[in-house]
Write a structure and sequence with these properties.
single chain; alpha/beta; nine-stranded mixed β-sheet; three-stranded mixed β-sheet; 8 helices
């Protein structure tokens, strides 16, 4: 017992802030960094930025690789570390607390000019900075992130979640320099008061779009896989991603706990490598329990508006398209098929004269025809309902939730989407 010591990596032991702000395990961090070209680690001029630092793990693992890669160019270890931390590695804390944690990870001190900092900067933040910012309200929401003014206009004693990197007209001025590599694991979403999952306001795509504005050579981020096919306000982002031939690698975990142990994110998570100067097909790798699949292919298959997640489905999709038959996207509704949010609760428990049945979140009620704000013509038709948000969750065999038939004189809240209208079933003799 005395000869064997267990010395765990402390960054594997930190509890997540939430399922929307997830600390990245060191193992996953290195898997992301492995996608970058090896020659970067031996280049003393390459600059790195993590604009969403929480634990500092990305910056720490980058620094470790540079320490090994620059041995021949800067033989003295202290000089090498000094050069790397002063000139190559930069970060932005998403909150003041995470900036302190990140500095402690990177500099061995929460203050970059502190007694125990391995590099003595002139100020307390060094190259790992927390920029305090505020939401910019336009009407009822923030012009930058889209969150509700009612929910997030709060006093100084509460966190506003106004992330500086995406709340700036000129993000390049945060450091007044260009970066060769931008990596990170951004916050995923913020509650908009109307539920969770796809009903919350997504944020991760804004960090990607802002990063591209800085024009790095390489960009890699860990994000929810929901963008493949759905998500509130993500249509333009999905089209942008699927049309971008500079995304050269995409690693997809349909079961999020395989990437983040103990964390369940509906639809799974993924990370990608965007290579500014190289165009081509993408290496798509899907990782499932006891199974991996890799295929070189376009992100957007010809004739598809969404990303076809599983490589095995490509040949099936091509065969189906060759038949030129009507596809399911012709009969599927958009979000809020009847204009009613998931928070809608103005319903009666029992039917009444001329009432309409409504399927809401885990309950059924009855409303008037006047309460249906759009697509009233669908109420009288046969249709099929299925939950809007779904994912693999903890059941790898589950693909979609169970659909059910909506008889005439029925509607739903945005908890469900609708297939239809459908012809009535044949009458049995």
């Amino acid at each position: 017992m005395l000869t064997k010591k267990h010395n765990p990596d402390i960054l594997t032991c930190i509890a997540n802030l939430s399922s929307d702000e997830v600390f990245t395990p060191p193992k996953v961090t290195n898997q992301v960094l492995d996608m970058l070209p090896n020659e970067l680690w031996s280049n003393e001029k390459i600059t790195f930025l993590d604009p969403v630092s929480k634990s500092g793990v990305f910056l720490r693992e980058i620094t470790k690789r540079l320490i090994d890669g620059l041995k021949s160019k800067i033989p003295n270890l202290e000089d090498r570390v000094e050069h790397i931390l002063r000139n190559q590695v930069y970060g932005i804390g998403i909150t003041e607390l995470t900036s302190l944690i990140s500095r402690r990870t990177l500099y061995f001190s929460k203050y970059a000019n502190g007694k125990y900092s391995i590099v003595k900067f002139d100020d307390s933040q060094g190259n790992l900075i927390f920029f305090k910012s505020e939401h910019t309200w336009e009407g009822k929401s923030c012009r930058y992130c889209g969150v509700s003014k009612e929910m997030y206009e709060r006093g100084d004693n509460l966190e506003s979640y106004s992330y500086s990197f995406i709340h700036s007209e000129n993000p390049e001025k945060l450091f007044n320099m260009k970066f060769d590599v931008i990596v990170g694991n951004p916050p995923y979403q913020m509650n908009d008061g109307g539920g969770t999952g796809s009903s919350a306001v997504p944020l991760y795509h804004k960090f990607i779009q802002t990063s591209k504005k800085l024009n790095p050579r390489f960009l890699s981020m860990i994000i929810p896989s929901r963008w493949f096919s759905g998500g509130k306000g993500l249509d333009d982002f999905r089209d942008e991603m699927l049309s971008d031939s500079r995304i050269r690698k995409l690693i997809d975990y349909p079961l999020s706990s395989m990437c983040f142990p103990g964390v369940q994110i509906e639809g799974g998570v993924c990370y990608f490598l965007w290579d500014r100067d190289n165009h081509g097909k993408c290496e798509v790798k899907t990782i499932l329990p006891e199974k991996e699949s890799t295929m070189i292919r376009p992100l957007r298959e010809n004739g598809s508006e969404t990303f076809i997640r599983y490589n095995e489905s490509i040949s099936i999709f091509r065969k189906v398209k060759s038949k030129n038959e009507i596809t399911i996207d012709r009969i599927i509704s958009s979000r809020k098929p009847f204009g009613l949010p998931s928070t809608f609760n103005l319903m009666k428990k029992k039917p009444f004269d001329n009432s309409i049945k409504i399927y809401a979140n885990k309950k059924v009620g009855y409303i008037t025809k006047q309460q249906v704000s759009k697509n009233i013509q669908w109420v009288k038709e046969f249709k099929v309902f299925i939950t809007t948000a779904y994912g693999l969750g903890s059941l790898p065999s589950q693909v979609i939730n169970k659909p059910f038939i909506g008889l005439p004189n029925s509607c739903s809240t945005e908890t469900y989407i609708m297939f239809g209208p459908l012809p009535p079933p044949p009458i049995k003799n």
